Structures are given as structure tokens and as C-alpha cells.
Amino acid sequence: MQLSFDCPVGLLTRLEARYGEAHRRYHVWNHVLACFAARDLIAEASPATDLALLFHDAIYDPLAHDNEARSAELLVEEGRYANLDERWLAHARELVRATKHDALATSEDAGIVVDSDLSILGADAATFDAYEIAVRAEYAFVDDTVFSAGRARILEALLARPLLFATPRARTLWESRARRNLVRSHARWK
Length: 190
Description:
Elements: H1 9-19, H2 29-42, H3 47-55, H4 67-81, H5 86-98, H6 108-118, H7 125-138, H8 144-160, H9 168-189
Helix pairs in contact: 2-6, 3-5, 3-6, 4-5, 5-6, 8-9
């Protein structure tokens, strides 16, 4: 992972520990690394997008609905502790909030971050299936009926979007395969 700014080692160490929490199966450090690999395919790096990718799932509680907001605030707290540029922190905070995925990203940088996060949707079938197994494992405490209904609603919302990806490069790379994966997944969970 090549960052566009000089990131203190301690910050990365603390982040890796968060992504290593026992309840995580998909939202782990390898997911962050995969987001950076995806970002490398679609855009140039910037400090704000890199910070957002590092922190976008720093707080992950499957039962919470405010993970993105809490992760964004943690980014600012940790960034200030590391004496990072306040402009980067303010911009990155908004980019992390965009990973709530409740709407298509509206800025170029938000599109880069969100598309990098969603790039798993456009992975080959085996990788996508492994992602789904890992997400299901993160919700192991939820019975199959409840999980299936919730997952189907999420997939339906994604499939209803005219576009899954905001950046032209991500659409070229992943849009059609992502739609196939989502249709296949929806058939499994509905």
C-alpha cells in the first residue's frame, strides 16, 4: 500500500488493530488493502482519499447504524493526534461519511473512495462469493430468515440504482460484473 502522505507508523498500527477485531470477517485490514488496490486502478492518490480509505471501516459494529459517522470522527481525532493537515482531515471526514452508500457519490473524491470500497461487487464470482460468506459470518448472530430478508433489501436497493459506480473508470472495470454478481446474490437471498 503506497500512501500519498507521510503516515505515522503508530497511526497505522492502531488502525490495523481495529481492523483485527475478533468479530470482523470481511471488514478487516485486507479489505483496506483491496480498497487501495482498487483506488490505484481508478484514480490518483491524494491525502484525503487515502485517509478516508484507511478509516472508512475503522469502527465496525454490525448492529450499529452510525459506523461511518463514528469512523469519520475517529479519523479527525487520530489525524489531529498525528498532527496531520486540518484541511485533509475535514475533507476526509466527509469522504468517510459517503461510504454509508445511501446514495451515489456526488464529488470526484467521494466517488473514488466509494467506488474503491464497492469494488468487491465487481470481483470475479469466486472472490465475490467469499466476500458474501465473510459478511454472513459477521452477522452470524442473526438467524437465516432475518439475514436473508435484510440482505435481499440491500441488494434490491443497489440493483435499483441506475449506476453502481460513480467514476467512469470504475464503471468500465466493474459495473457489468457487479450487476451480475448482485443478481446472482439476490436470487440466493430472496
